[in-house]
Amino acid sequence: LSRGLGDVYKRQAMQMAGQLADQLRDKGINGIHIRVRAPGGNKQRSPGPGAQAAIRAFARAGIRIGRIEDVTPVPHDGTRPKGGRRV
């Protein structure tokens, strides 16, 4: 069965977050603040499937999460977005 790429990215993000949580615990850090960023501008504004999976993995690993902040750049009427006219 074929899964979407989203599942692959989620799995990679969870593994990365688990490894990072181990490294943080080794250094004595038990709480973090998370800043989530998407491509932004006139591109995609959602951070993607891996962001939520990584945050959950940190929480499951016992790392305390202080605040989650979205730092996606938002255009102030910059260039025209890609794509044709929709009627």
* General shape: elongated
Q: CATH superfamily name? A: Ribosomal protein S11/S14
Task: Provide the CATH top-level class.
Answer: Alpha Beta
In CATH terms, what is the architecture?
A: 2-Layer Sandwich
How many H/I helical runs? 2
- Give the strand tally: 2
How are the strands of the largest sheet arranged? 1-2
Q: Estimate the helix proportion, in percent.
A: 25-40%
What CATH calls the topology is Nucleotidyltransferase, domain 5
Outline the biggest β-sheet.
2 strands, parallel
| Number of spatially distinct domains | 1
Element-by-element helix/strand order? HEHE
Unreliable runs, pLDDT <50, ≥5 residues? Answer: none
Distance between the termini: 37 Å
Give the amount of beta strand, in percent: 5-15%
Structural class: alpha+beta
Mean pLDDT: 89
Keywords: Ribonucleoprotein, Ribosomal protein
Pfam families: Ribosomal_S11
Protein name: 30S ribosomal protein S11
GO molecular function, one term: structural constituent of ribosome
Question: Your description of this structure?
Answer:
By secondary structure, the chain is of the alpha+beta class. It has one domain: 2-Layer Sandwich (Nucleotidyltransferase, domain 5), CATH 3.30.420. The protein is built from 2 helices and 2 strands, in the order H-E-H-E. The protein has a two-stranded parallel ribbon. Strand 1, helix 2 (49-60) and strand 2 form a beta-alpha-beta unit. The radius of gyration is 17 Å and the shape is elongated.
